[in-house]
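Quick one, tokens below:
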């Protein structure tokens, strides 16, 4: 399902506007560079709600952290954050990796997941679903997911060793090197765990570098987008 709208530099899932208690979005370039930045006031203003933020120190792992308050500068190493606290935004930073937001409307619990290829194949999405279940009782069939702007299969060229880590249907056999469909790999993993609704932004960050930060397009100095989700 692809149904998104952009306002004020933030891309949102249109269907989630029905959840008046939910704050969510994926930032675009016009919302600014969130590399290393953790200014609660600016973040909550840009995303339109919340009081504090919890963004981990991302290490391309499969680790999930639970947040019960803003983390400030004492951020744990993790690549996913779960919370059910009102006013707290769980967030991840990306520039080509897939940001994935999860919401359980039944239990009112949320997660933000940084799914680059390493984290995805290591199981960071499955671990986030497991943690939502163990902390808040969330069932996969109640959870809805949104995959934000990420590098598309058009541009995600990888070596054969990386391609071999993905299911064959997520690999496009191009010459000289294969390409991976990261969003498809994310969807496949979520669906295999019983998550029925997955929304996409479906915008390649590298092809659309005027709107999004891209590590592949701009190199190590690329800025970072912030994707965040929380309960009002
Ligand atoms: Zn592309």
């Amino acid at each position: 399902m692809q149904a998104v709208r952009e306002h004020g530099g933030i891309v949102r899932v249109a269907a989630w506007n029905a959840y008046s208690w939910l704050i969510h979005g994926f930032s675009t370039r016009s919302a600014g560079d969130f590399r290393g930045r953790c200014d609660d006031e600016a973040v909550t203003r840009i995303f339109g709600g919340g009081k504090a933020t919890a963004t981990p120190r991302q290490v391309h792992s499969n680790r999930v952290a639970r947040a019960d308050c803003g983390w400030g500068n004492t951020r744990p190493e993790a690549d996913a954050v779960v919370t059910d606290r009102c006013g707290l935004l769980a967030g991840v930073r990306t520039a080509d990796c897939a940001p994935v937001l999860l919401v359980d409307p039944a239990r009112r619990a949320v997660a933000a997941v940084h799914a680059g290829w390493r984290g995805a194949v290591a199981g960071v999405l499955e671990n986030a679903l497991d943690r939502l279940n163990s902390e808040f009782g969330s069932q996969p069939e109640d959870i809805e997911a949104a995959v934000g702007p990420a590098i598309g299969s058009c541009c995600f060229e990888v070596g054969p060793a990386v391609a071999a880590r993905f299911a064959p249907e997520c690999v496009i056999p191009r010459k000289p090197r294969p390409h991976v469909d990261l969003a498809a790999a994310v969807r496949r993993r979520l669906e295999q765990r019983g998550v029925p609704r997955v929304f996409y932004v479906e915008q390649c960050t590298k092809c659309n570098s005027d709107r999004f930060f891209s590590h592949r397009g701009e190199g190590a100095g690329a800025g970072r987008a912030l994707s965040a989700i929380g309960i009002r």
